[in-house]
Amino acid sequence: MAKSSEESPSRRTFMMVVIGLISTVIGIALAVPILGAVLNPLFKKRDIVWTKLGKISDLNLKPLVPKFVPVYFRVKEGWSVNTLPRQVVVVKQVNGDLLFFSNQCTHLGCPLHWIPARQKFLCPCHGGMFNITGQVVGGPPPRPLYQWVHKMEGNNVYIQNKFKDNPKDRGI
Ligand code: FES
């Protein structure tokens, strides 16, 4: 006759394994949403914000003479709010239109310099060159200069930390 009050060692081991598995599944089910909530900000895109560049009349723009203007975007990234210093290159065209270029070379992102004698933007890294309208005129850059998204409100110009045709469509 079998003993009802004593379990065999193999039955006890089996029960321990089943309880262990159930505990693991419950633990994972509880941990996944909590981890998701904690880590989610890390994988979010950078916020897109508007920042005032200033009054156009204060920039003293001359036709075809680029003006490098610093701009500071306050953006939320993950759990923190950061200040991103950037440069806007404002170019007044002969007809009065304004262009707002990034100063970053479209090859690997080095900062550009304006060379007045050559009327070109020059990249010091690999010799990339752009003309006053942002078109590539030499070197390895694969595309014209990026232009900042901007808007005018009266005499004030506002810039977004985003390029007009950024293929990644995220904050800069
Ligand atoms: S980063 Fe400008 S040419 Fe390479």
From TrEMBL:
InterPro entries, A to Z: Rieske_2Fe-2S (IPR017941), Rieske_2Fe-2S_sf (IPR036922), Rieske_Fe-S_prot (IPR014349), Rieske_Fe-S_prot_C (IPR005805)
Rieske domain: residues covered: 67-159
Keywords, sorted A to Z: 2Fe-2S, Disulfide bond, Iron, Iron-sulfur, Membrane, Metal-binding, Transmembrane, Transmembrane helix
GO CC terms of this entry: membrane
SUPFAM superfamilies: ISP domain
Transmembrane parts of this sequence: 14-39
Cofactor: [2Fe-2S] cluster
Gene3D superfamilies in the cross-refs: Rieske [2Fe-2S] iron-sulphur domain
GO molecular function, a single term: 2 iron, 2 sulfur cluster binding
Name by which UniProt lists this protein: Rieske (2Fe-2S) protein
